[in-house]
Design goal:
- InterPro entries: TM_pro_TauE-like, TSUP/Inactive_protease-like.
- Its main location: membrane.
- It is found in: Cell membrane; Membrane.
- The chain is an all-alpha fold.
- It is built from 10 helices and no strands.
- The protein has helices at residues 2-20, 28-35, 40-64, 70-93, 96-116, 134-155, 160-170, 175-197, 205-225, 231-256.
- α3 (40-64) runs antiparallel to α8 (175-197), α6 packs antiparallel against α7 and α7 packs antiparallel against α8 (175-197).
- The model has no long low-confidence stretch (mean pLDDT 80).
């Protein structure tokens, strides 16, 4: 039964990653803890494997379609990878209850961001036809990269719910390119986070393989049919689901543990 649940949860995560370029990973850790019975220490590296692999597969068609802004990817990775190790170190010092409460807060923020964003391209760093004003926008990219990397290491999330708004609203990147760029950044941060969590971690490889396998399939299918889906409506309903799961995590952390 556990493997069946892993297959189902993985498919959902993969589809959401393929369609939205992030956000789906915010449900991976709760699914692993409450759905499959893993501890937080097991769920975080397992989530990083699943999210990283699914994002890599989902990014491939975007890379082939030239829908990745590589300079922004480099900035996010250069700042996010060291921050990922810092987040992992902090996470090892905190009790599981504190991590779950913090994770619930992050989920609420993620849901709020999803409701606030409507896919409109921002102009804060845009220079029109010439592209992005790097001098103006590099500091914003560095700050966003640090935040995403730290959360990846601390909670095992990909951070797409922060990356997409940063790319679209702050930097003026078109949504298709933002999704592709986000997926590549998530791969880099997830790999760094996994390395930082491997020491002394007991990973259930049967669950991880089942989860990751269907996540890959879901991501590929979503990437192929993504242009035919109303992603604004999907993102809105997904935000409501995130709020509901956050409430459950918070109640469990405060009252049941």
């Amino acid at each position: 039964m556990t493997l069946v649940l892993a297959l189902g949860f993985g498919a959902v995560i993969g589809v959401l990653l393929g369609l939205l370029g992030g956000g789906g990973s915010i449900l991976a850790v709760p699914a692993l803890i409450f759905g499959l019975g893993l501890s937080m220490a097991q769920a975080v590296p397992t989530s990083l494997i699943v999210v990283g692999v699914a994002s890599a597969v989902g990014a491939l068609p975007r890379v082939r379609g030239h829908q990745v802004e590589w300079r922004l990817t480099a900035i996010f990775a250069a700042t996010g990878i060291p921050a990922t190790f810092a987040g992992s170190a902090v996470g090892r010092l905190l009790p599981e209850r504190a991590l779950l409460i913090g994770f619930a807060v992050v989920m609420v923020v993620a849901g709020a961001r999803m409701l606030a964003d409507r896919g409109d391209t921002g102009t804060a760093c845009s220079t029109g036809s010439s592209g992005i004003n790097w001098r103006r926008c590099a500091p914003r990219s560095i700050a966003a990269g640090l935040a995403v990397g730290f959360l990846t290491g601390l909670f095992g999330v990909g951070g797409g719910f922060l990356i997409i708004p940063a790319l679209v609203l702050m930097l003026g990147i078109e949504m298709p390119v933002a999704v592709g760029t986000s997926l590549v950044i998530i791969v880099a941060n997830s790999a760094a986070g996994l390395i930082s969590h491997l020491s002394g971690t007991n990973i259930d490889w049967a669950i991880t393989t089942a989860f990751a396998g269907t996540a890959i399939v879901g991501s590929l299918i979503a990437g192929h049919f993504g242009t035919r889906v109303d992603t604004d409506r999907l993102q809105r309903w997904f935000a409501y689901l995130v709020f509901a799961v956050a409430a459950y995590v918070l109640v469990d952390a405060i009252l049941l543990r």
